[in-house]
Automatic annotation (TrEMBL):
Species whose genome carries this gene: Notoacmeibacter marinus
Gene3D superfamilies: 2-enoyl-CoA Hydratase, Chain A, domain 1 (3.90.226.10), Lyase 2-enoyl-coa Hydratase, Chain A, domain 2 (1.10.12.10)
UniProt family annotation: Belongs to the enoyl-CoA hydratase/isomerase family.
GO BP: fatty acid metabolic process
Classification via CDD domains: crotonase-like
Annotated keywords: Fatty acid metabolism, Lipid metabolism, Transit peptide
SUPFAM superfamilies linked to this entry: ClpP/crotonase
Domain of life: Bacteria
GO molecular function annotations of the record: hydro-lyase activity
Name of the protein described by the UniProt record: Enoyl-CoA hydratase domain-containing protein 3, mitochondrial
Length: 271
């Protein structure tokens, strides 16, 4: 593994390592990686810093705890009810910061892979759904259980409903029941399910495969993917045709096609 960088903010900690072009951001806020206001800011900053580092080509979002992420910090949120406004200002700030975090993942110039071992519930499930790819161990579990405590998982619903069929999303949201990794794969929440002992190895292989591609091509493709997904069919084709032309004019497209014709390995310049 590469050099270990440690970021600390009070008791809220991330463990960041990098090997080649793959940066691994592991949440390490025991016991459940609860997304407090401070921790969400910390995680957003770490993701942004990864995107600004030109040596980073793929980000892996993982956990060093037994739980991947149990969602928002309910103790922190309940404590805010003691404020004069009954917590309204704090709640607004919390959910806005959560939205910023999820959109940071989607808008990041590099692909983000969720490495899920353990439980991912509520906003933790939202994290998984927001990532570009998700690989889960056989011990992973997923749920949007807000309905069980009188708080519908409305913000997790945004990422969830954009990744799985509406009826499967509604089933998770309405029942609050836990979904095993096999079913999560069947409904499109995760890409693969592997034995726990091979999880890191499989994720690293995925990350290295993606990191070997042109960073420019990955960036332009990821941006186009999410942009076209929100457009009507004809507009989506118009937009992606524009992107294809832009991509064709890039140095890496010229190099990649030449390398294919000449039967050699391309040398990317990421332009």
């Amino acid at each position: 593994m590469g050099e270990v960088l440690k970021i600390e903010h009070g008791t809220e900690t991330l463990r960041i390592t990098q090997e080649g072009g793959v940066r691994r951001i592991a949440m390490a806020r025991p016991p459940a990686n609860a997304l407090s206001l401070g921790f969400m800011e910390e995680l957003t900053n770490a993701l942004t810093a990864a995107a600004e580092d030109r040596n980073v080509r793929v980000v892996v979002l993982a956990s060093d705890a037994k739980v991947f992420c149990a969602g928002h910090d309910l103790k922190e949120m309940q404590a805010a009810r003691d404020e004069a406004d009954k917590g309204r200002c704090f709640f607004e700030k919390t959910f806005q910061r959560c939205a910023d975090l999820m959109q940071t993942i989607v808008r990041l110039r590099v692909p983000v892979i969720a490495e899920v071992n353990g439980v991912a519930t509520a906003a933790g499930c939202q994290l998984v759904a927001s990532c570009d790819l998700a690989i889960a161990s056989e011990e992973a579990r997923f749920a949007t259980p807000g309905v069980n405590i009188g708080l519908f998982c409305s913000t997790p619903m945004v990422a969830l409903s954009r990744n799985v069929h509406r009826k499967h999303a509604m089933e998770m949201l309405l029942t609050g029941e836990t979904t095993d990794p096999t079913h999560a794969r069947e409904i499109g929440l995760v890409n693969r399910v592997v034995p726990k002992q091979y999880l890191g190895q499989v994720v690293q292989k995925y990350a290295e495969t993606i990191a070997s591609k042109s960073a420019f091509t990955l960036k332009i493709g990821k941006e186009a993917f999410y942009r076209q997904a929100e457009l009507p069919l004809s507009e989506a084709y118009k937009e992606t045709a524009r992107v294809m032309v832009e991509n064709m004019m890039a140095k890496d497209a010229d190099e990649g096609m030449s390398a294919f014709i000449e039967k050699r390995t391309p040398t990317w310049v990421d332009e």
